[in-house]
TrEMBL record:
Transmembrane segments: none
Record domain Serine hydroxymethyltransferase-like: where: 13-397
Keywords noted in UniProt: Amino-acid biosynthesis, Cytoplasm, One-carbon metabolism, Pyridoxal phosphate, Transferase
Localization of this protein: Cytoplasm
Gene that this sequence comes from: glyA
Domain of life according to the entry: Bacteria
Record-listed E.C. numbers: 2.1.2.1
NCBIfam families named among the record's database cross-references: PRK00011.1 (NF000586)
Listed HAMAP family: SHMT
Name of the protein described by the UniProt record: Serine hydroxymethyltransferase
Binding of (6S)-5,6,7,8-tetrahydrofolate, residues: 125, 129-131
Annotated pathway: One-carbon metabolism; tetrahydrofolate interconversion; Amino-acid biosynthesis; glycine biosynthesis; glycine from L-serine: step 1/1
Site (Plays an important role in substrate specificity): 232
Complexes and interactors: Homodimer.
Species, as recorded: Micromonospora haikouensis
């Protein structure tokens, strides 16, 4: 494999220097940037290598042992390894590793459990839900009758509202799981509500899958009928998705179509997708092995400890932390009292090589591309081995920049050049002291590391 990859890299550099340059540029950007984006994480080099494998060359419609093409006996081993590892990681009875993304996984499930016009109850997008959970801007919101639940005054999921809406609208499917929610989700409570109205429960744990595997967040596997996740956020894997089932794998599927597990098999292929992306599946197998390995629990503990430390430090510095703290990797900051939009904060921090994302917060009335808040996440810094001291340093860096920002409008502001330079230096030092594991340290940072010691 090494020879093949080396030959490929050599050819890329010599025959397509422009593309090579941007690819190298992106690697360097990541090495020198403080990424606090909650939906990102750096993959292990072995995950990268698996994805760059010759598995990409095979078309293999179908499933291991039952393909529509010859020549799949080796590939079958790769997919079976991914299935076995997914089941082991999540304690699931059933796993489908073919979804191209979590969006695809959700739509495969929703488009088979529901008929067009049927009712779906999910967390509203502006309260922390995902586009695929019924937002009018996306497929599910257009083809189904989507009803959205939200948060109570403390910023926690309003379970009483979920139950009231479920009784009122009688959804066929209830979706739990979120994209910007810093607290634990009570899957058992969601299931009780679903059972009371005869709905299927879909848990989408794209954001917290790593904590679930590590046992640091309750698992939905035996509460939800089906669980979906992406593999590229907290599982540190390739871009892709999984569909899992536990206790209900053998429950009846709708319209007498066998068991739920059999139903999902047909739902992913041939109903919703074509051939699987086997190099991505190889990389999923690799990432899932790492996620059940000895070091992952330590990383997962660091994810939560860092987020708690960052939330506490930001609160001490006078920031409004939504829900007062965090149970997972997410820290949501409400900037409305500081008269600064999320967009201004995001742009100012980006100038200083700190990458975050603007996000709606409870009672937010600003447009989605402006917002009144920021979403921070600790997956990347935890992977870089940054502990709570570094997480507090990140909070102080954010404050250094945001305290110096003078907004002129929703998107325009002034940031003194001296503050920008100081913040960039501190970011560079932090990144140099904590390189992304397995990734080479860029030359300027190597000097910083030496100088810092
Ligand atoms: C990110 C996310 C998705 C979509 O994941 P993709 O694989 O990027 O399509 C779905 N659901 C939730 C809750 C997410 O956070």
């Amino acid at each position: 494999m090494g020879e093949l990859l080396d030959a490929g890299l050599h050819q890329l550099a010599t025959t397509d220097p422009r593309l090579h340059e941007v690819l190298v540029g992106e690697q360097l950007r990541q090495a020198g940037t403080l990424s606090l984006v909650a939906s990102c994480s750096p993959v292990d080099p072995s995950v990268l290598a698996s994805q760059a494998s010759a598995a990409v060359n095979v078309t293999a419609e179908g499933y291991p042992g039952r393909r529509y093409h010859a020549g799949c006996e080796v590939i079958d081993g790769i997919e079976q390894l991914a299935i076995d590892r997914a089941r082991r990681a999540f304690g699931a009875r059933y796993a489908n590793v073919q979804p191209h993304s979590a969006t695809t996984a959700n739509y495969a499930v929703l488009s088979s459990l529901l008929e067009p016009g049927d009712t779906l109850l999910g967390m509203a997008l502006d309260k922390g839900g995902h586009l695929t959970h019924g937002s009018p801007a996306a497929y599910a919101g257009r083809y189904f009758r989507a009803v959205g639940y939200g948060l109570d005054d403390a910023g926690l999921i309003d379970y009483a509202e979920v139950e009231r809406l479920a009784r009122e609208h009688r959804p066929k499917v209830i979706v739990c799981g979120a994209t910007a929610y810093p607290r634990q989700i009570d899957f058992a409570r969601f299931r009780r509500i679903a059972d009371r109205v005869g709905a299927y429960l879909l848990a989408d744990i794209s954001h917290t899958a790593g904590l679930v595997v590590a046992g640091l967040h309750p698992s939905p596997i035996d509460h939800a009928h089906l669980t979906t996740t992406c593999t590229h956020k907290q599982l540190y894997g390739p871009r892709g998705g999984l569909i899992l089932a536990g206790r209900d794998a053998d429950a009846p599927a709708p319209r007498g179509k066998g068991t739920l597990a059999q139903f999902v098999q047909r739902t992913v292929f041939p109903y919703f997708q074509g051939a699987p992306v086997l190099n991505a599946i190889a990389a999923k197998a690799r990432a899932l092995d790492i996620a059940t390995g000895p070091e992952f629990r330590a990383t997962a503990r660091r994810i939560v400890a860092d987020a708690r430390a960052m939330a506490a430090a930001l609160a001490d510095l006078g920031y409004a932390v939504v829900s007062g703290g965090t149970d997972n990797h997410i820290v949501l900051i409400d900037l409305s009292a500081r008269r600064m939009t999320g967009l201004v904060a995001e742009l100012a921090l980006e100038e200083c090589h700190i990458v975050v994302n603007k996000n709606r917060v409870p009672r937010d009335t600003t447009p989605a591309l402006v917002t009144a808040g920021l979403r921070l996440g600790t997956n990347s810094i935890a992977a870089r081995g940054m502990g709570t001291d570094a997480a507090v340093a990140c909070a102080e860096l954010i404050d250094l920049v945001l305290s110096a920002v003078e907004p002129y409008s929703d998107r325009e502001y002034h940031l003194p050049a001296a503050v920008r330079e100081l913040a960039r230096q501190r970011v560079a030092r932090l990144c140099a002291a904590h390189p992304i594991p397995g990734y080479p340290i860029p030359a300027p940072q190597r000097e910083l590391t030496v100088a810092g010691r």
